[in-house]
Amino acid sequence: MEMSPETIKALLDAFDRSDWREMVVTVGEDRLHVSRDPLPDSAVHGAGSSAGPVTAGDPPPLPVAKASSGAVPPTAPPPEESAQSTGGSGQGGGGDAAVPVAGEKIESPSVGLFWRAPAPGAAPFVEVGQAVAAGETVAIVEVMKLMNHVASPVDGVVTAILVENGAPVEFGQTIVVVDPEG
User: Domains plus CATH for the chain?
Assistant: First the structure.
């Protein structure tokens, strides 16, 4: 038995509404671990680059999810990346606070991995400066091998892509910004 994206979302919503400091849920081989407590710097910088946990800086702290593989997705970029927003590559850091971009914020529908393209080596769904229509796919968030297409809620122009391709994202994290005035 596996945890579905809907189950994970419901668990994270329940955790958000609670006053719990930490929650661990195990279903079969899947494990979800969220905590409001920041990890010490040694834990953040001592782990490998693909599994290095980072805590969010916005109050209240966002939960950190832990998958059965033991990897902990970051909820904010390292400090040197947080100033990026709409750089030449069209990719930025991952935090909302450092990016004062006007427009409709498109949020991750679940915890997972952010993908800019439908397949490795394929062209990205969108680039910064590109016009998009309401309902058009702007990214994919993968959770437990399920691909969730994320669509633009409005017609407009992409003003920012706030997450690196392949990076972990949190539920509700802003991943793309579309300006309906653009």
Answer: 104-179 (2.40.50.100)
